[in-house]
Design a protein that fits this description.
The complex is a heterodimer of chains A (106) and B (121).
Chain A lengths: L3 E4 L2 E4 L5 E7 L7 E6 L6 E5 L3 E2 L7 E6 L2 E6 L9 E6 L5 E2 L3 E5 L1
Parallel strand pairs in A: 2-11
Antiparallel strand pairs in A: 1-3, 3-8, 4-5, 4-9, 5-6, 7-8, 9-10, 9-11
Chain B lengths: L2 E5 L2 E3 L5 E8 L8 E6 L5 E7 L6 E3 L7 E6 L4 E6 L8 E8 L8 E4 L3 E5 L2
Parallel strand pairs in B: 2-11
Antiparallel strand pairs in B: 1-3, 3-8, 4-5, 4-9, 5-6, 7-8, 9-10, 9-11
The chains are: A mainly beta (106), B mainly beta (121).
Chain lengths: 106, 121
């Protein structure tokens, strides 16, 4: 099975900061990677699919990059609404999620 | 508007069974794969099972293989998860998620609010 490893597990940042989260796959998944945002008590929300495609309605400050085994999610200027937990997911072979990255207020 | 409404969760004793349902609306149900994803209290997301648009392709996580069965009724716009031989480690919020395409090779673009399953004596 494909394993997904995110780093860091927790990230402390301030409004306006540029934030980068990394996700590594245990084997190549081409570009079959998605990123989700989850807030407490809410369902996950799809942000990015196919590694770099922005889901409709998602602010352009979110961007994704990478292919093969290394991927990143970047928030160009962190907004108050962005404090949440972020998960990467591979969908090349069934689904596997990373363990999550909590973005908290510094 | 896409809506996914899960039901069937509750408190159940170890070794017993439970059947979850997901009622879908707002899209052509039989055009898309569907999935169950769970989240234990305070933990991350774990994919449980997925089913293609026509039930021709089904997959399970190793942790539930042989105990859980996913199914769908396209005439009723509904997804199901039959959970047998439940264990304490199956305690979680169970989400129903719509795949963005007809097979499991697509991410989940809509999610329900979840139904809580608690396995305890």
């Amino acid at each position: 099975d494909i394993q997904m490893t995110q780093s860091p597990s927790t990230l402390s940042a301030s409004v306006g900061d540029r934030v980068t989260i990394t996700c590594r796959a245990s084997q190549s998944i081409s570009s079959w990677l998605a990123w989700y945002q989850q807030k407490p008590g809410k369902a996950p929300k799809l942000l990015i699919y196919k590694a770099s495609s922005l889901e409709s309605g998602v602010p352009s400050r979110f961007s994704g990059s990478g292919s093969g085994t290394e991927f990143t999610l970047t928030i160009s200027s962190l907004q108050p609404d962005d404090f949440a937990t972020y998960y990467c997911q591979q969908y090349n072979s069934i689904w596997t999620f990373g363990q999550g990255t909590k973005v908290e207020i510094k | 508007e896409v809506q996914l409404v899960e039901s069937g969760g509750g408190l159940v004793q170890p070794g017993r069974s439970l059947r979850l349902s997901c009622a879908a609306s707002g899209f052509t149900f039989d055009d898309y794969a569907m999935h169950w994803v769970r989240q234990a209290p305070g933990k991350g997301l774990e994919w449980v099972s997925g089913i293609s648009w026509n039930s021709g392709s089904i997959g399970y996580a190793d942790s539930v293989k042989g105990r859980f069965t996913i199914s769908r009724d396209n005439a009723k716009n509904s997804l199901y998860l039959q959970m047998n031989s439940l264990r304490a480690e199956d305690t979680a919020l169970y989400y129903c998620a719509k795949g963005a395409g007809y097979s499991s090779g697509w991410p989940g673009d809509y999610w329900g609010q979840g139904t809580l399953v608690t396995v305890s004596s």
